[in-house]
Amino acid sequence: MNELRSHLSRYAPLRRYFLRYLDLQLAMLVCSLLSGFGGVLSPYITKLTFDYAYANRDLHLLIALAVAGLLMMVFSTVGGAVQQYLQLHASQRLTYAMRADFLRHLYRLPLSYFQSRTTGEHLYRLGSDIPGAAGFIGGFVGAVINPFLSALYPLAAVLWMDWRFALVAMTVVPVFVLQSRYFGRRQRDLARETAAEQQRIASEATNRIAQVKLVKAFGRERREIREYLSNQIKLIRLSFRSYWLNLQSGTTSNLVNAVVQGGVGLYLGCRVIRGDMTVGTLIALSMYFVQLIGAARGLANLYQGILSQLVPVDRMLDVLEMEGEVQDRPGARHPGSLDGVIALQEIQFGYLPDRPVLNGLSLTILPGTMVAIVGASGGGKTTILNLLLRLYEPDRGTVSVGGWDVRDLKLAPLRQQIGVVLQETHLFSDTVRANIIYGDPEATDEEVIASAKLADAHEFITALPLGYDSVVGEDGCHLSMGQRQRIGIARALIKRPRLLLLDEATASLGSTAEVRILDALRPKNGERTLIVVTHRLSAIRDADRIFVLDDGRIAEQGSHHELLALDGLYRRLWDQQFGSQEVAPSVGDS
Ligand SMILES: Nc1ncnc2c1ncn2[C@@H]1O[C@H](COP(=O)(O)OP(=O)(O)OP(=O)(O)O)[C@@H](O)[C@H]1O
Ligand SMILES: [Mg+2]
Question: How does residue 588 score in pLDDT terms, banded at 50, 70 and 90?
């Protein structure tokens, strides 16, 4: 119990959930008081039957007692049933509320949290741990208060009927508690180990099955199956260990039970033979004793039960205790329309400590222009976009829009105005239309088509069997990479973003299509600012400004011709792609 006490502060957040359905919990308490009352009167009715009805051959009393006994039975059965119903209610409602809170919290966690976990793990916590935790809180009265009640009732009855016997009976309780302490911790550890193993298997299987194409392409099916099955064997071993532990614990308590009951029977029998007690009292006391033992066992299992039931609770709290991202500073202001100068100043940033990616990087982007960021793979281009989106915060330096540090701006309206096409385009397994209006759920069909046209996607979409209603398959697997990217662009465009970020968004298209799309997206009247990250320099020749990233900072910047004239890094990159011609091969040739 010490352990329980020391952890009590950890479980304080659960109080909120408990109190939320306090009315249900109180109703359950009343039910269990009533049903316990019914249960505790039955032995006494039996005693009266033996000592008065039988002894005096009183038929009327017998019938009255039989009716009373029946009523008590009905009382306790109905009370128990209603309690179970209420418990189901409480735990279902709690599961709902806790899942909502859990998801809300999960989405607030920083991206770095997700990168060190798997989807399967989150699914397991959401699908299995949360109902477990809700069951524990919803069933708190049934699981924790009931065992005490069912011990108190017969104990009170025994004390009232024969206090000497009550003393004898009380000595038994510690035996059960000791035995439970011994097994409880082992059972809890095993439950924890099993949950961790199940979660690991689930996340591995989710990952492998999601990558089925890779598995097939490398001919690793048999190996995957073997690995899955060998993990299963670990689980089977664990369930056998749990079985043995339960068997040991059960056998021990059965043994103790038998010895104790035998001793008590002998003691009571002697007193009846000495004329110290009536047969009716013997029967009633024996019945109460059985109830007491049951209650003592319940109390002993209570500790075991709580320890095991706390496993999902702990696993849920592990996530809820994680520090969420600071969304908005106090006093953060609405960014207004994002049409100011975007500036990164002296940015230092690394994903891991001591591994800087950006190192004193500064750049300024004028509103309504098209700029491009180029540089070697792994140089930090995507990282710059991540900082603009505030998916990560710089370690040092500031990102500002229109003169305001983005950390002083409200995040939601900021992101609302940024359209982004990520380097890997992910689509939901839904229709083309649903994927496009993900950017703006209110968009009309005309807007969907207009965005698709701008992204050069309308033509291929209408050629699909169901047009905009075609389902794209998991992560867009029914489409080619270039088609997925164009849907991704349409999805970003439908937000009518003030700032559009394209991270290699056209890399899977031919250079003709790439140039055509970029030309269409080029801000004509300053309606948006466009930032393009690409490796294909021919596509961004017309950008207003090109930034060349090297060694974590901007090494060169200027228009295409200025940069070529500089004869530096950009010139070398250009020459690598096109030889030392001044002009790239025309669109038609590539
Ligand atoms: N989530 C992450 N955790 C740790 N390191 C990361 C993470 N994302 C990127 N990096 C590292 O940061 C560096 C810059 O990555 P970034 O994705 O910005 O490069 P990039 O210029 O976009 O490259 P590419 O042209 O290949 O897309 C790389 O060395 C990469 O290994
Ligand atoms: Mg990148």
Answer: very low
In whole angstroms, what is the distance from residue 93 CA to residue 514 CA? Answer: 52
The two tokens of residue 250 are: 């059960």
Segment 130-156, tens digit of pLDDT: 999 999 988 887 788 888 888 888 999
pLDDT at 422: 87
Q: Which atom of ligand 1 lies nearest, measured to the CA of 380?
A: 18
Distance CA 135, CA 91 (A): 5
Q: Is position 535 within any domain?
A: yes
| CA-350 nearest atom, ligand 1 | 12
Expressed in angstroms and rounded, the spacing between residue 422 Cα and the centre of ligand 1 is 13
Range of the domain at 48: 7-192+246-320
Binned at pLDDT 50, 70 and 90, residue 329 comes out as confident
- Residue 116 Cβ < 6 Å to ligand 1: no
Instruction: Report the pLDDT value the prediction gives residue 525, as an integer from 0 to 100.
Output: 83
* Same-domain check for residues 440 and 363: no
Checking DSSP bridges between strand 396-401 and strand 342-349, what pairing results, if any? antiparallel
C-alpha pair distances (Å), 199 with each of 16, 314, 560: 27, 14, 53
Please tell me if the CB atom of residue 423 comes closer than 6 angstroms to any atom of ligand 1: yes
The more confident residue out of 178 and 262 is 262
**CB-proximal residues (5 Å) to ion ligand 2:** 381-382, 423
Does residue 565 share a domain with residue 493? no
* pTM to 2 decimal places: 0.76
